Amino acid sequence: MLRIAIQKSGRLSEESLKLIKECGISFINSSLKLKTESTNFPLEILYLRDDDIPGYVADGVADIGIVGENVLVEEGMQQLAVESLGFSKCRLSLAVPKADDYSDISDLQGKNIATSYPNLLQAYLDERGVQAHIHTISGSVEIAPSIGLADAICDIVSSGSTLISNGLKEVERVFKSQAVLIANQNLSMEKRAILDKLLFRIHAVQRAQR
Length: 210
Ligand code: ATP
Ligand code: ZN
Known about the structure:
D-Maltodextrin-Binding Protein, domain 2, ATP phosphoribosyltransferase, ATP-binding, ATP phosphoribosyltransferase activity, amino-acid biosynthesis
């Protein structure tokens, strides 16, 4: 039996379940439960918060998982990545108040930037030789400038409409993300064989979609 961790409820949940179903794997769908077992494939699904998924897979609590590359790389767990899945595409971007003059990244020198992704942001700023004060907050990052908490933000963007409705404009793309399949690095031969079967089906689904 292979155990997969997916997001319990959020932007990855629906597409993660859809992919599993498209692989012909059936299970009783109950969003109230913490885990469910497939009725026709040796797979158990564990429903977790997305941030916890890389850690649980690294520790072997789950064997594999589906998570955003943004979270995976932020947590320094990119070595677990097996396969990009092509959904939940988004980007991590820097944004400033719409009325600000902004010409390039050096404008952020010495500024206060709010984000939930301090490591990805720090790496981006370091590469460009910019020193800024990074304030790590866990949610509602986009309101930080309007309440005077920060001069800029670094947050997940897909269409950009959340930025616009908060009076912000996107000025730098820090990281491009999509959902990725991750796996524990010490799977038993039995589990590895189940994962290979699953990957074979995932590839068939992906081919059919192209
Ligand atoms: P949890 O309660 O599980 O911690 P969360 O609020 O941290 O959830 P979500 O907002 O559901 O997370 O986002 C999960 C992942 O989906 C993100 O890490 C990112 O990879 C992706 N994502 C986030 N926003 C979007 C978006 N607007 N469009 C597409 N994908 C997104
Ligand atoms: Zn989360």
